Amino acid sequence: MQIWSWRLIFLLNLPIAAAVLLLAPRIPESHAAKEGVAAQPLDRIGATLNTLSFGALIYALSFAPELGWRNPRVFSLLIGGIILLAAFLWSQSKRPNAMMPLSLFSNPRFLAANLLTFLLYGALMGALYTIPFYVIQVRHYSPIEAGAIFLPLIVLMFFFSARVGAWIPKVGERVLLVAGAIFAGAGFAAFALLDELPSYALSILPGVLLLGAGMTLCVAPLSAAVMASVPENQTGIASAVNNAISRLAGLVAVSLLALVLAHGFESSLSRQLSHSDLSIEARAEILANDAHLHDTSIPSDLDPQKRAEAAVMFDRAFLAGFRAVMLACALSAWGGAVAVFVLLRRKTRSS
Question: What is the pLDDT confidence band of residue 351, given thresholds at 50, 70 and 90?
Fold first, then answer.
């Protein structure tokens, strides 16, 4: 039973964040000194700039489809976010206690692992955000059924990720990561190409299985590549940076892919309306509210036949946006495979 808005779930982060801020200075690991070097304080300036910059950018990207790029709120936050991001990167190149030392990215292996993290996990989070809308609004699944479609992926990762870890000494991280990213990209492409087939087994399961196989091949080797790419005394910060990049990738991807979805929906809907026999007034009313995507209201004065025609147009328009999102996710995953293939060559731990 729903008591209030689902948005309240995000309040869960507030007490956790407050506890982290209070306890971080008291955790012994936070004061761990490098060999013979005094421990550095937390990079509060970097953390503040990082939070503000990405908060502004993600807000601007999220509301741009609804408000428009010329909206003063969107435009000012976008410019402000870019300036704050530049300030964050500058601070990370200058401060001795930087939370994300940019020198780490001069290591090709570390760079490759984090490029794959950003591109693959961004695609995954964007897909996991978009697919439920597709199966609920277009295929008319219940929310429980929409959540259950990913069970095969979870089962694959649960039972086989540890076994993949045992393959790393035999075949190396590079082969596994490239293969995993290729499989994951094929899974995203399958969602785009099979979306109109009639059953779950034909239209959704192939993408879920390919994506599950890809992620299963990537998880353990990716962690191993990150940890093996830096000296022993930097493994902690390398792991933290990689984890932060995976979370950041999801936030950025959801915002950017929402733009892709909105553009695909609006372009397809506008094209269909231009060839429909709906009245000019009805077309204008629909287009004026198309930022709501599939939830765009159908003019109340239309007769049942016209309302059914408009509903079909909404389905087709959403499918067009959904396909664009899935293909963008596929290209992102395959881009990660290219980055690993080119950069992840040396197998010895850097000094």
Answer: very low
